[in-house]
């Protein structure tokens, strides 16, 4: 794994309004929110580290997490761009009952970036990273113990943090109770997701929720966690297969299953797709075919970062449901093709349902087609060659022994 980081590193020789109170408690943490785009400005630092390389990483919330810990040893100047279209797992239940974008991938990355230098930091991370039992009754019982402050997970968390975190968990619970016609299932629920959802609904801002989570978990000031689409609306991902089939929903594309709990995306029990994936696109909430395609606006903070970073990384992960949902947005391909900085693709060490039978060149072609929006609306298509979009490929084995392929 170290070779991958060495490769990336070798490329470079007015006071704000206070957090408002709400009906339960006023969080006691000294949180102050900037008046402009939080995604772009919430991680300002008076002591930037320009000697460290700056990266922008496109990824999902799972596969690249194992790299994050090691990457911090090279640089903390990383903008993590994540999709908000996941409709599976714990996130799915939140979206079903409360609506809004999926926050699971963002929460997962924030936790990986969280401070671990003190016992309290570790306690906060343990609390926000906790998942409830799979059994629905046990999950609900444990959730109420956490909500009432009686769970052992609160040990080591000081009063200011307890009040801040507990207040937003209570706000989340209140939002559920306000929807008596929807029975919320806490099975396998993520406490971090509940906190995140409570903050997003309270502030009516995904950016504000990320800012709050970042402050609570003490993420380095130079590390950005950016939703590729900054929205409070539910997003639906669709895909078109080469045989013309349209599949609706990220979970149905990637790993359709009725099993509650962690999912092995590569497991053989997941049925194969009837045909390879041609493209992914966003659909209206009630959409069922490509005529219902919609074109959400990319987060401006992502475009700003793309224009200035020293290196762009397409990380390992689910190719069509983790990477491509970010790459197909208008403006992404245009900026990437205009940059002369290194652009690195880190290939997966194994195949999954989306990439069965793929070669390395198949991955490169899929990335290029997504950035060019080759198979979408003809008015939005680009004609960039892959060399302007990807300059290096890291072919990684499951044991993290990368072989570097450099294009001329």
Automatic annotation (TrEMBL):
Gene3D superfamilies: CofD-like domains. This is Gluconeogenesis factor isoform X2.
